[in-house]
Amino acid sequence: MINVWRVLVGPNDDWPLAMCDFQSVNTQDDVLTNDCLHYNSVGENQILHPNPAHTWYYLSDQTETEPFVFRNAASRGNRACAYHASVENPSSKGPPRQSIEVRVVAFR
């Protein structure tokens, strides 16, 4: 699964999307996999526990022409994925963030 995420109105400094560098994640200790219950199916999701060893990145003042494109899930094994979250920016001076996310299922 591939995600495409971008702001609709930029530049944005309100609750920017941050990405955790997968190489800084210890999947054995930092990640908890849960069942995700839907109306007629059961899936999985993951929670990334905070760790000072994690390295996070975000786009400062992200514009509409700077989308994030990242892999959110893989169907085979424990492949690298992008743990992500919006983060508070206490010095934000702009309007509330407006954003859109599209999820794409890619087959090989």
Topology overview:
Blueprint: E1 2-7, E2 17-20, H1 27-30, E3 31-37, E4 42-48, E5 56-58, E6 68-71, E7 83-86, E8 99-104
Antiparallel strand pairs: 1-6, 1-8, 2-5, 2-7, 3-4
Keywords: Oxidoreductase
GO molecular function, one term: oxidoreductase activity
Family: Belongs to the asaB hydroxylase/desaturase family.
Overview features:
oxidoreductase, 108 residues, single chain, mainly beta
Question: Would you kindly provide a written description of the structure presented here, covering whatever features stand out?
Answer:
- The chain is mostly beta strands.
- It has one domain.
- Helices cover 4% and strands 38% of the residues.
- The chain contains 1 helix and 8 strands.
- The strands form 3 sheets. The protein has a 3-stranded antiparallel β-sheet with strand order 6-1-8, with no helix packed on it.
- A hairpin with a 4-residue loop joins strand 3 (31-37) and strand 4.
- The longest helix is centred in the first third of the chain and has 4 residues, at 27-30.
- The chain is globular.
- The protein starts with a strand and ends with a strand.
- The mean pLDDT is 91.
- Belongs to the asaB hydroxylase/desaturase family.
Q: Return the string of H and E elements.
A: EEHEEEEEE
Shape: globular
- CA-to-CA gap between the ends? 12 Å
Q: Which strand-content bin applies to the residues?
A: 35-45%
Number of helices: 1
The structure class reads mainly beta
**Helix fraction by DSSP (H/I, runs of at least 4):** under 10%
Using only CA atoms, what is the Rg? 15 Å
* Whole-number count of domains: 1
Report the average pLDDT across residues: 91
**Biggest sheet overview:** 3 strands, antiparallel
Low-confidence stretches: none
The total of beta strands comes to 8
- Strand arrangement in the largest pleated sheet: 6-1-8
Keywords: Oxidoreductase
InterPro entries: AsaB-like
GO molecular function: oxidoreductase activity
Family: Belongs to the asaB hydroxylase/desaturase family.
